[in-house]
Amino acid sequence: MVYIVSWDEFVDRSVQLFRADPESTRYVVKYRHCDGKLVLKVTDNKECLKFKTDQAQEAKKMEKLNNIFFTLMARGPDVDLSEVTGKEPMETQPAKKGRGRKQ
Amino acid sequence: MVLLQLDPFLNELTSMFEKSKDKGSVWVTLKRSSLKSKLQKRKLSSAGESIEYRCLIRATDAKKTISTSVGAKDHLRFQASYATILKAHMTALKKRERKDRKKSTEAEKKESTSTTTSKPTKKL
Fold first, then answer.
1. Where are stretches of biased composition, namely Basic residues (chain B) (predicted)?
2. A66 contacts on B by Cβ (under 8 Å)
3. CB within 8 A of A7, min separation 6: which ones?
4. Domains of chain A: which residue ranges?
5. For A17-76, how does the pLDDT look when each residue is reduced to its tens digit (9 = 90+)?
6. Number of structural domains, chain B?
């Protein structure tokens, strides 16, 4: 099983995986209170990405990832993620309020 | 597989977390689904209608499985409640403290170098 070390890489790759195949990609969370371990898995039945942790701060990041997936799945894979987290792994167009930004 | 409405699902999820405190795991799976069979999907797409997708959420504690499906309208509300439940229950995870990390890395260094000199610990 592929355990990814970097959180950001895990997020980017899982969103990519989902956007490539939204019908078969699923996101699984396993939590064991007795061991204090949290494991995240994203798979499209061909490729599998996993992330495990025992840190409370990673749980906070996981919540953000939950939001990302909820939005992607409920609204559609083409939804713009900037409104959720400010992260846009696929497109790099800052379409937010332009405060003195010259393009 | 029990399909529930949003709020009963959240209540059941809470009780699952509480039951699994001493031993056991809780799995939560998120998947996009339109909850329609292939035939229905084909009919809809040929008729020119858009298929409404929902987010299917399943939770299990290895004894019981519950599920619910969330649409685009409910997903924000569900997201908020779900986040609250997770925050309330994931208390067994370690809180990262710099002091602990420093101590653990110093302890590792001591073991690897096996010198008798003691390193001065910095107070943060």
1. 93-102
2. 30, 79, 82-83, 86
3. A51, A58, A61
4. 1-73
5. 998 998 899 999 999 988 889 999 999 999 999 999 999 888 889 998 898 888 888 777
6. 1
pTM for the model? 0.74
> At A49, which helix (H) or strand (E)?
strand A48-53
Flag whether the ipTM exceeds 0.90.
Answer: no
Q: Which fold has domain A1-73?
A: 3.30.720
CA–CA distance, B99 with B49 (Å, rounded to integer): 59
Which of these ranges, A77-81, B72-76, B106-110, has the smallest mean pLDDT? B106-110
A55 inside 8 A of chain B by CB:
yes
| Contact partners, residue B51, CB within 8 Å, separation at least 6 | B34, B36, B41, B44, B45
Query: Which residues does residue B30 pair with via DSSP β-bridges, in sequence order?
Result: A27, B57
